[in-house]
Amino acid sequence: MRQAEDQIETYAEAALTTAKLEGQWLAVRARWISLAAVAFMLPFLNPQWSVLYYHGSLILFALIGYLQLRFARLGSSRAELALIFCDLVLLTLVTVVPNPLDKAAEWPLQSQYVFGGFQFFYVILASATLAYSWRTIVAVGTWTAVVWMSGVLVVWFWPVANPELSTAIANILADFRGLAYFFDPNSVNFGLRVQEVVVFFLVAGTLAVTVRRSSLLLRSHAAAERARTNLARYFSPNVVEQLSQNDDPLKDVRMQDVAVMFVDIVGFTRLSNHQSPQAVIDLLRDFHGAMGRAVFDHSGTLDKYLGDGLMATFGTPFQGERDVANAVECAFDMVERVETLNATRRSAGQAPISLSIGLHYGSVVLGDIGGSRLEFAVVGDTVNIASRVEALTRSLSCHIALSDAVRNAIQTQGVSPDVLDALTSAGALALRGVDQPMVVWTALPKVVSKT
Length: 451
Hints:
59% of the residues lie in helices and 15% in strands. By secondary structure, it is α+β, with helices and mostly antiparallel strands. Strands 1, 2, 3, 4, 5, 6, 7 and 8 form an 8-stranded mixed β-sheet that branches.
């Protein structure tokens, strides 16, 4: 179980990483576009050479965005956090420190805080949400408060004041001391600065909770998609749809009647000895792909691959009205698909393959088995008998062999008359591990090539 949880977590982390990198790229593009717009706007607002100071700052912001994109990782990344910190420090310096190129400015240093520069920190906070890490958002909130208030304290204890301005404001607003304090350019308005960082930290905390919840929902969605993908490996699409709408439908251990099919490539060992390893793998991929699609097209369940063969069941995990008929029709369809595959192989100068299929119908036990890794299993004598029936195809020289239980069942399930006419009784035969002889039926005799 722990291994399955680790796999789900890995799957979710991959989804989060992809989403973050896409979001980070969008954020950097938005940053560059915004910086370009600001750079174009500044000369119109301040047509002086001193505006080049802010253009230089914009270039630094653009460079930091590029580096953030290069070092973007899911969760905590020291390089990424350091770059965010650089963003905050640079923004604080640009906001608080007067433009050194503007020699004509007469503003006291304290007055820099009344220009509303703190609102730009919210842009950095919004970009931090794309990191998909609540810790990063909390870090941005904390660092912003520390950096901003550090600047406030520096200006508070080491002011660069213009007392004449304070005196002039006090004289004009002598009867309104509160307004005089508010408009005093030598005051940093410490209470308002504390209010700014408190509100900012509350917003950061709310966003951190939101991102944390979004990450959990994404992980839950990734786990559900992974589970659905795993189901699609074994069950037909219509069965997957049913399973996805039920809670743990496979965990109920039960007995029910199921049609079991074994499929094998005849003489595969001899065939593979004369081919390269890559050719052998290509053959198995083509064969398993064609057979798997046939199973799903006939509402079957792909139980497992068995080297050069496979085991499929019909009537799992849910029973239907035509389970056995579907199994038999699937067997005939498989033979046709192998003929199509052989036509392709012959045109490529490759040797054709011969197919053998065995079918039996009876009671089986269904349920999940395993410890750290669960697997949906179908066990019982029915499975063993189906395997024995498939082995008889060699001595009976046929592509399909099925038990009398299968033939009796399809007579009531609306199978095509052509299918019934194609079946020939091989009589009662002894099967290894079975106490009594069993009537076996064959179909599609093998044609021995003269070439």
